[in-house]
Amino acid sequence: MPKIKTHKATAKRFKITRNNKIIKRKAGQDHFNTRESGVTTRNKRRDLQIADTEYNVIRQLMPYNK
After folding, report:
1. This prediction's pTM
2. What does 3-34 look like in DSSP terms, one character per residue?
3. Per-residue pLDDT tens for 14-31?
4. Distance between alpha carbon 39 and the CA centroid of its chain, in Å?
5. Domain extents for the chain?
6. In whole angstroms, what is the distance from residue 9 CA to residue 53 CA?
7. Topology, domain 8-61
8. Cα(16)–Cα(21) distance, rounded to whole angstroms?
9. DSSP-assigned letter for residue 46
């Protein structure tokens, strides 16, 4: 049976921690940030843990990342 290929776009956007949690960067950080409050801008700098419903989909796209 052939090996499963890693989806490279997914591997660049998500990281898997030691405890098998998946971390992603908060979206919408590139431009048009002047109209937002300082609290919103600071909150966008943080990484987020993905929801449990998306976990299995991400793991299928990144089968060998432990």
Report:
1. 0.78
2. PPPP-HHHHHHEEE-TTS-EEEEPS--SS--T
3. 999 999 999 999 988 889
4. 21
5. 8-61
6. 19
7. Factor Xa Inhibitor (4.10.410)
8. 6
9. S
